[in-house]
Design brief:
7-stranded mixed β-sheet, 14 strands
Length: 259
C-alpha cells in the first residue's frame, strides 16, 4: 500500500510572526498562553515515500526543526530572498558543516544571486541550484514563476505535480495579473498567503492579499481546496470568518494529505 505524501505547515505567520514582541492584542496574548494563534514565519515540509524537502527557511528554522524532531535537512526550495523566508539559512549551513554533508537549495537564479550577496560564504556548505526551467524533487515535477509582491517587489510561486495531483505554494503575492494567474488554474490545492481578513491600509502600501481579495481570486481560478497561510496577528483562529467552505486556515503543525 502506497503511503500518500503529506504537507506539514511549520510556519503560518507573516514577516513578524505571532505574537509580535511589542503587542498585547487579544491574538498575541492568546499566542503566548494556549498558543492556538502562535505562528512562526511561513514554511512547509513536503514529505513522503519518495523523499522530502522544505519550502523556505526563515528565522524560526531551528525551532521548527526541533518541533519535528529533525537534526538534518537535505533539500530546500526558496520563494524569495526576504529575511522571513531565508533568515535560517546560516543555521542550516552550520548544521550541514557539522554533519559533513552539503545541502541543496533550489531557487530562481535572481533569488540565488541575492542570497549569495547577503551570505557569500553559504555556498561552502549549501549547493545553490537554479530552478528557473523546473526541477524534480521527491517525485514532484516543479515549475516556478515570478509573482507580484506589491510594495515589497517580487516573490516566486511553485506549482508541483505528481501522480495527477496538482498544487501550488504561493505565500507572498497580491493583485496578480492574468499572466501570473495562468499556473493557478486546474488545481487540487492552492496554498495562498493572506496576511489579514480585511486589510485597511492603503493599497499601494501593501504586499499580500487579504482574505476577502483572495476569495475573489478563488472565484476565478476555482481550486478544489485552498489553505490560507502567512497570517498576521489580525487573524484569530478562535473566530469563525465568513469564508468559502473549501477554505482552511493553516495552523502551526497542521498536516494535509497531498492526494
Amino acid at each position: 500500500m502506497t503511503i500518500p505524501d503529506k504537507l506539514t505547515f511549520l510556519g503560518t505567520g507573516d514577516a513578524m510572526g505571532v505574537p509580535r514582541l511589542y503587542c498585547d492584542c487579544e491574538v498575541c496574548m492568546e499566542a503566548r498562553t494556549t498558543g492556538i494563534n502562535r505562528r512562526y514565519r511561513s514554511s512547509v515540509l513536503v514529505h513522503g515515500s519518495d523523499g522530502e524537502f522544505m519550502i523556505d527557511g526563515g528565522p524560526d528554522f531551528v525551532h521548527q526543526m526541533e518541533l519535528l524532531g529533525k537534526r538534518q535537512l537535505r533539500t530546500m526550495l526558496v520563494t524569495h530572498p526576504h529575511f522571513d523566508h531565508i533568515g535560517g539559512l546560516p543555521e542550516w549551513a552550520d548544521a550541514c558543516r557539522w554533519l559533513g554533508e552539503k545541502g541543496e537549495m533550489y531557487a530562481p537564479q535572481e533569488v540565488l544571486e541575492t542570497i549569495q550577496s547577503q551570505f557569500p560564504w553559504l555556498s561552502r556548505h549549501i549547493k545553490m541550484q537554479p530552478c528557473d526551467s523546473g526541477v524534480e524533487l521527491a517525485g514532484y515535477q516543479i515549475r516556478t514563476w515570478k509573482v507580484n509582491h506589491g510594495k515589497n517587489g517580487y516573490s516566486y510561486a511553485y506549482r508541483l505535480e505528481k501522480d495527477g495531483y496538482r498544487w501550488v505554494y504561493c505565500s507572498d503575492s497580491i493583485n496578480l495579473n492574468e499572466q501570473e494567474r495562468q499556473q493557478l488554474y486546474h488545481l487540487d490545492l492552492l496554498v495562498l498567503g493572506t496576511s489579514f481578513y480585511h486589510e485597511l491600509a492603503e493599497f499601494h502600501t501593501r504586499s499580500v492579499y487579504d482574505m476577502l481579495e483572495a476569495q475573489e481570486l478563488l472565484r476565478q481560478i476555482k481550486p478544489k481546496q485552498t489553505i490560507f497561510t502567512h497570517m498576521s496577528h489580525d487573524v484569530d483562529l478562535r473566530q469563525k470568518y465568513d469564508l468559502m467552505p473549501d477554505i482552511t486556515l493553516a495552523e502551526t503543525g497542521m498536516t494535509h494529505i497531498l492526494s
